[in-house]
Design a protein that fits this description.
The radius of gyration is 13 Å and the shape is globular. By secondary structure, it is an alpha/beta fold. It has a single domain, classed as Rossmann fold (3-Layer(aba) Sandwich), CATH 3.40.50.2300. The chain contains five helices and five strands; from the N terminus they run βαβαβαβαβα. The longest helix has 13 residues.
């Protein structure tokens, strides 16, 4: 499974990279929404994990500017479980969300559910 992970927190990205590689996934990590959006124009992913709150451009900006095929699932990762943020991200195309902090089991349970359905 090919996964794009977008988060401005390097420790989150390193944890995701380690866990997902151990699960047999190929992971491409970005800390910048504009760079990640540019990458989606030339790369295909089975799943995208996107943070909401980031400096300069947030997760909503990414969702509006990335070229994401309909079959690619997108999960929001956020510590800000605010209804307006989650509603906005669903309007922009996410499939589901994870509240930070989450553990390996929760991450993989969400990924399997969204990718297999």
């Amino acid at each position: 499974m090919r996964i794009l992970a977008l988060d401005d927190d390097t420790s989150v990205l390193e944890s995701l990279r380690r866990i997902l590689k151990e699960e047999g996934c190929t992971v491409t990590c970005f800390q910048d929404a504009a760079e990640a959006a540019t990458d989606t124009a030339s790369s295909e992913y089975d799943l995208i994990l996107v943070d909401y709150k980031m400096p300069e451009k947030n997760g909503a900006w990414f969702m509006k500017n990335a070229r994401i095929p309909n079959e690619t699932k997108v999960l929001l990762m956020t510590a800000y479980a605010q209804k307006d943020i989650i509603d906005d991200m669903f309007k922009n195309g996410i499939s589901g969300y994870l509240i930070k902090p989450f553990d390996r089991d929760e991450l993989m349970r969400h990924i399997r559910f969204h990718v297999d359905n």
